[in-house]
Structure formats: structure tokens, C-alpha cells
């Protein structure tokens, strides 16, 4: 399965890439705008978005993905430090299939994403 | 020879004070009292009847039948004798036969008093203010029934006085309440039991407009309340506080949204209570509305702040805990060098956490104005040198700093460590935002009663729009994060400088670089 991760922090990128490579073919984008550019080339099965990123944040990215008929059906999962209840509800209201918070468990991140995709 | 005057009763000062409290002396005629004297004269069959009040040196008539004067000297007053026995009616069947009155000019000449009966006007606390009296020009007596009636009428006279006083008090209380209501910052409306506005204050008119005059307008008035809670939950009209108050409930702190007359929707806090009558029946309701727009803004800022702080703390924690988990778990199948990379990243992120937490603590102290300054006289050159060394010798140093210190600068009376911290923030920022290998300048000079220390870089500069928000917490989050800052450095620097009574300014041109200047007053140092 192909996974596109938008995350601006290089250290988190490294941890996520290693944590997910057993389950997914991982492509990293440095922010939301970068992720939108890479969607066509990578044709991902799932897109994982951080929320707070420079240039384009995860929410705007999700909104654009859901507004585009080509990308609308790709499942989106948020992976973010924003963990207030209102923020989680806001994220899910945008059409995300899951909302995971940081810090995450690196050993189970892959299986949690798989579980969300099977629902 | 003047007639013998009545003695002054015990507690005369209290009696006169009570008389003043009723505020009745020298007031215009009042039909209520006139009627009482008419009744007394009629029942007792006398040509004269008076409501007489005994002042310090006169008796003054609040009401009179058959007599044309308003007052007479107290020395001549029959009533001054009557008040000596508050519980008794003083009856003088024939004044000519009574040694107290036989020589009284009121007896020997006009109005030729022969018969007098006076029932004292006794206040609820037992003070006799005067009498209700009846007078005749021939000797006579009163029947038991007439005496009884005279006593009853004197009680009615006091009841009238009490009533006037209660009404005056109520009136004063009402005016006080109206003035309080008018100046209250909250919008206050008083409703009758049908929900019509019967009173409103200025704040209410500002927030809700003129109150409705018709049932039609009343509906429109209440329709302006969007009947929505802050979270957008719809409320039925009968659930909003004023409506519930009319149903007998007291509601405190209900949050609603209302459209002001200018169309703007504002969040409001509403409290309302029923106004009840003597027997608990609901006569109406009072409702107070408070515009809480500002409170909402503060709340939102705080929520944003929590989000950002949470993000700033959780992001490095993710790298630390995730990295350590992967290194420690044999199933991670790490490639060559990855374990070292993950551990180095964990260490760097731990440092980042330490910096951020210490910055957040500094910020909290500054905002609570609890930053303690340990001031001493410090040489400016020494402060600058210490800051430069710290920045140049940092492990990630990437440039050099040129120092331009004016000769014979006076020392400043400051907390040296805090000023060095502020300078390090400015120098580190300047280096971070300039392409390596960077050269930045720090210059110190005296301007009158102040010393200015300016840090100048030749970086990309700051767009004018961003200059405005530069000193807000986490404003530079994105760019600062790229270069490893907490987003709080400038806020803290500003706070430190201002705690010293100084100021920080920034001048910047896009493409040409920025200069941050701190100005420290010399006032306390010399």
C-alpha cells in the first residue's frame, strides 16, 4: 500500500518513515502544498496529514483533496499535536477517516492506520 | 404677665428629631389632613379643629378648621400641655377655670378659647409630635364616643404621616435604583407579565434598540435573539432567560447570540429573575444582558495559545519517544546508522523541549509581571561581549559578529543576566535569518539619558505586515521553527527590556535586512 505523509518536522518525518515502512510504501511531503503536488505522481492509497505546517496546513489540504473529484475518495488521516476535542471534531468533519494525535506510538502506528482504513 | 408655659417634655431632642424626619413642617395644605380636621370638628360639634405640631418654639398647623393663623408661639399652645401625656386626651372643659390657661391671650382675647380637647399624635416609637384637637368658644365636654372618635382620628393622622414618609422613602429608593440601573454597564430591561418592556436603561437601548410599543414590534424585538447557544445549539424561544423568568425561574449566565440594531451579531450573557407581588404572584421579570464579545476573543486567544503550546511540546516529544521506541525494539529492523540518527534527533529534541519550557516559564513570569530583576551596575561593553561569545561559541554557530561600542559609555543599572539573555535572542535571530556565512553587527551608543544597543543583520528583511505582529507569542512560528526557535524569543526579549523601563524597536526593509534596537534608560543608574 502506498502512503503519502505531509509533515514539516524532519525528525518526525524520520521516525514516521521508519515506523511505517514495514506496512507501507511511504512518500514524504514537507507541507500541504507539497502533498497536493505529489498526489498525482504517487497515487497513494492513504494520505496522512499533519495539521500545523507552513505554506498550507493540513486542514486546508484536506479541504482541497475532498473538493477535487480525482482525490476525493482517497482516505485521509490526521496525525497532529492538536488534540483538543473541538479540534478532533473539526478534523473529522472535514471528511477524514481517522484522527491520530502526537506523540504517537511508533511501534503500532502502522497497524492503527491499517485498522482505520479497514473500517 | 405671660401665662405659665408648659414644661419641656422628657426626650425633647428625640421628639424634635422625629418631627424633622417626617419633613412635614411648613408644607402646603393637604386634603388628607384637612379631611381629618373636618371630621373631628363635625363629630365633636366644635367650630375649631386643628392638626397641631409642636416645634421648638411654635405650634404649626398642618390642617385647620375655623382658625385663620398658621402658627402661634409654643408658649401659648394648649397642645404643648397635651403632649406631656402621650397616652391621654387632654380635656379642658373651661379654660377660664384652669389656672394654666385663665390668663392665656388665646383665652382672654381672639379666638376666645373656652373648651379644648387634644389627642396627642404619637409616633410608633412613642413620641408625641403634636395633637389633633378640637376647640370651642363656650365651656363644654365630650361624650365617651366623641373622645373615642378623637383618639381614632389622631391615630389616622399619624398613619397619614407614616404613609407620606414611607412613600418618600420608596420614591428615593426608586430614584436611586433608576440611577444605578441607568449607569450600569449591563443592559437591563424590566418586563411586565406579558413580556412587554416597561423599563430599560441606556445600555439596553444600545444593545437591543428602542423597546417595542406594540405586540407586533415585541415579537420582532425578541426575534433578534438568535436563540442560539454559543456552541450553535438552537433554543426554543420559551427557553431563553427572560421567558423563563416570566414562568417563575431565576436564570443566571445563559449564553445567547443577539443581533444588535446595527445588524451585528454579538454574544451575550443573560441573567433574569421573576418580579413577584406580595403573594408571590408573577408581575413581570427583570433581565440583564452583558455583551461578552471581548471575553470570547480572550477565550479564543487562550485556546489558540493552548493549541500552539501543545504543538510545540508534542512535536519534539514525538521524535524523542518514537525514536527511542524504534531504537529499543528489535523488530524495527533499523538500517546502518539509523539508530544513531534517531538518538541524535531525540537528544536535539530534548534540548528543544528544555528551551521551549524555559521560554514558556519566562513568558508566564513576564505576563504575570513576576519577573524578578537582580539589578547591578553593568558595563555595556561587558554585556555585549558576554552575549556575543555565547552566540559565537554555540555548537550551531554560523557567522561572525562585529561589535561597535561607543567610547566612554556609562554603565547601566540592570539585571545583567536578563539583558544578556535579551541580546542573545536578538543576535541568534539575526544569525539564523541571514544566509551563512553571516556577518551581523551589534552597536551600542548613548542617546541623552539612555543607552541604545542595536543588532543589525543583512538578511531578507521583514515585510511591513509582519512587523505589526512580530512581538506576539508564536507569531513567527513557521519560520522560527525552520530555524529552531520556540517562537517566543522576541516576546521574551521585549518583556525583559520593558521590565527594565526600556523599549524595543525594529526597523526593516525587505531585501536589505533588519535592525532591532533596545533602549535602556540611564535613570536608575546614576
* End-to-end gap of chain A: 16 Å
Span between N and C termini of chain B?
90 Å
- Overall pLDDT metric of chain A: 94
What's the number of helices of chain A? 5
Write up what this structure looks like.
The complex is a heterodimer of chains A (119) and B (526). Chain A is built from five helices and five strands, in the order βαβαβαβαβα. Chain A has helices at residues 10-20, 32-42, 58-67, 85-93, 109-118; strands at 2-6, 25-29, 46-49, 76-80, 98-101. Chain A has a five-stranded parallel β-sheet with strand order 2-1-3-4-5, with helices on both faces. In chain A, helix 2 (32-42) packs parallel to helix 3. In chain B, a hairpin with a 5-residue loop joins strand 5 (115-122) and strand 6. Chain B has helices spanning 12-21, 31-44, 79-82, 105-108, 144-183, 202-208, 215-223, 241-246, 293-328, 338-367, 380-392, 416-432, 464-469, 477-482, 489-499, and strands spanning 48-54, 58-65, 71-73, 90-92, 115-122, 128-136, 187-192, 197-200, 251-259, 265-276, 282-291, 376-378, 399-405, 412-414, 438-447, 450-456, 503-509, 513-521. The N and C termini of chain B lie far apart (90 Å). Residues 477-483 of chain B have low confidence and may be disordered. Chain B has 15 helices and 18 strands. At the A-B interface, helix 1 of A face helix 9, helix 10 and helix 14 of B.
Secondary-structure map:
The complex is a heterodimer of chains A (119) and B (526).
Chain A: E1 2-6, H1 10-20, E2 25-29, H2 32-42, E3 46-49, H3 58-67, E4 76-80, H4 85-93, E5 98-101, H5 109-118
Parallel strand pairs in A: 1-2, 1-3, 3-4, 4-5
Helix pairs in contact in A: 2-3
Chain B: H1 12-21, H2 31-44, E1 48-54, E2 58-65, E3 71-73, H3 79-82, E4 90-92, H4 105-108, E5 115-122, E6 128-136, H5 144-183, E7 187-192, E8 197-200, H6 202-208, H7 215-223, H8 241-246, E9 251-259, E10 265-276, E11 282-291, H9 293-328, H10 338-367, E12 376-378, H11 380-392, E13 399-405, E14 412-414, H12 416-432, E15 438-447, E16 450-456, H13 464-469, H14 477-482, H15 489-499, E17 503-509, E18 513-521
Helix pairs in contact in B: 2-5, 9-10, 10-15, 11-12, 12-15
